[in-house]
Amino acid sequence: MKNTFWLFPGQGAQCPGMALDFLDAGSAGARRLFACASEALGQDCEALLRTSGAEALCRTDLSQPLLTLADLSAAAFLAERGFEPAGCAGFSLGEYAALAVCGVLGEEACFALVTERGRAMQACVDALSEPAGMAAVVGLDAAHVDAVLASALACGAAAPGELFAANRNAARQVVISGTERALAAAEGLFREAGARRFVRLAVAGPFHSPLMAPAAERFAAFLESLPFADPRIPLYSNVSGRRVRSGIEAKALAARHMTSAVRWTDEEQAIIAEQVFDAALEVGPGSVLAGLWRDTGSAAPCHAAGTAADIRRIYAAEE
What we know:
Strand content: 5-15%
CATH superfamily of the largest domain: Malonyl-Coenzyme A Acyl Carrier Protein, domain 2
Structural class: alpha/beta
Number of domains: 2
Radius of gyration: 19 Å
CATH topology of the largest domain: Malonyl-Coenzyme A Acyl Carrier Protein, domain 2
């Protein structure tokens, strides 16, 4: 199973104590990454992860650098055991770990970007005139979700600019972003339309929607100061749902990333159509992406590879 495609989870996958097992296992790569992330954040990331609870980790200004650290520490632990990715994709924030592993960004640049990105997004969330967030609609396809969003606007449950389709996760799972008022009003409409579940997500704001435009403007200025190299291995984009061909393209897509929907289903299908590999690995906390991958119908399985124990099991299966 050494021929693997790596998928990096995004915000919402964070959990207390993540990545500390790589330090405890003596990973030199993880130790280097912790030092790099601590420098960018201006705080001791090991101490933060040993003491922070789930609520603190929901803050975007902390969760983005810390989750990227967890994703990249898992990647380093895999590399130390001889694994090299056939290609990479990352879900939402996870795309920054993918950019680093594919050689588009150096580690220092990656942590600088996700730290500034997290701060810009948290500042935007803090400045919103009312609370906002995200929810997963399970059991309806994208067309039905769009129809319900239109009806929410038509009946006054949501005002213009309050509610958006944000992430296309699976054939019958779409995440929406919006104000708290609009999400609460829309929940009943989605249930009436046949949604099986309406699940609020553990994120700090209405990500991947035009409500994040002030953060995107701030981040774009910072983005311009950092070089993006051409990918060394296949890399896929949330914004386009397709393979990224150059560093110039990667930077342009990064500038649009905060306010654009995550086209994960398109991305998965492009990966399956264009790449040959034995298995996908979810390189970072949780197993959400493995669950979404099962819906693709791919013959290649997706295995959790977010902890030292997960990776040891995968390595042992190779022997």
